[in-house]
Design brief:
Layout (H helix, E strand, L loop, with lengths): L1 H14 L1 H14 L8 H13 L4 H17 L12 H14 L6 H13 L5 H16 L3 H5 L6 E3 L3 E5 L12 E5 L6 H6 L1
Antiparallel strand pairs: 1-2, 2-3
Helix pairs in contact: 1-4, 2-4, 3-4, 3-5, 6-7
């Protein structure tokens, strides 16, 4: 009976420990209350986790942890709050945005080792390294990559702006993919090379 309930809650506590710790630290930094958390604020937390590159699945887990701890304290979980819609809207936005983002870190590590295996000092090798880094950083389809040319790439301070498709100058803003430099893939350095 009750003993089993307590054991299950304990298991959930440990399953959610990491997610909850992240939320606590985030609240602490902003001096906001983690329990009876404002849905708007929970939405901001989830959004910031997404910006750090966490997957929609991890973000749902974070939200489940927050809900679990609220129930433990006999408080309505933020998602079930009357303003819980802001959280649902944020989750929907995160999962649709994430489908366009580059593969997860594990894949990135594998691809970095492929990049490092292209060792030759030829122009072709430099081109292959740059294309591979751009492919990963921009999550390009191979067909998009094949149609890339220098005149479609604009080099800015800390980023590359790549014109996709044919596009008229007016529709350009919709078809511009921005790739920021990143320490793992170093797409800018490879592009410069």
């Amino acid at each position: 009976g009750d003993h089993q309930g307590a054991a299950a809650a304990g298991l959930l506590d440990s399953a959610y420990a990491n997610d909850w710790a992240r939320f606590l630290a985030w609240c602490d930094a902003r001096h906001v209350a983690p329990i009876a958390a404002d849905p708007e604020m929970v939405a901001q937390f989830l959004e910031s986790e997404s910006t750090l590159g966490y997957s929609p699945r991890t973000i749902s887990h974070r939200l489940a942890a927050i809900g679990h701890m609220h129930r433990r304290h006999r408080v309505v979980p933020p998602l079930l709050h009357k303003n819980g819609g802001t959280i649902r809207a944020t989750l929907a936005r995160i999962s649709s945005a994430q489908t366009n983002q580059h593969p997860l870190q594990a894949t990135t590590t594998v691809l970095r080792s492929i990049l490092q295996s292209i060792e030759e000092d030829t122009l072709d090798a430099a081109r292959d390294r740059a294309l591979l880094a751009l492919r990963i950083a921009g999550a390009f389809q191979l067909s998009e990559l094949a149609s890339l040319s220098f005149n479609k790439i604009k080099r800015e301070d800390n980023r590359l702006e790549i014109q996709l498709g044919r596009g008229t100058p007016r529709s350009r803003s919709h078809n511009v993919l921005t790739i920021f430099d990143d320490a793992v893939l170093r797409p800018l350095a490879l592009f410069d090379e």
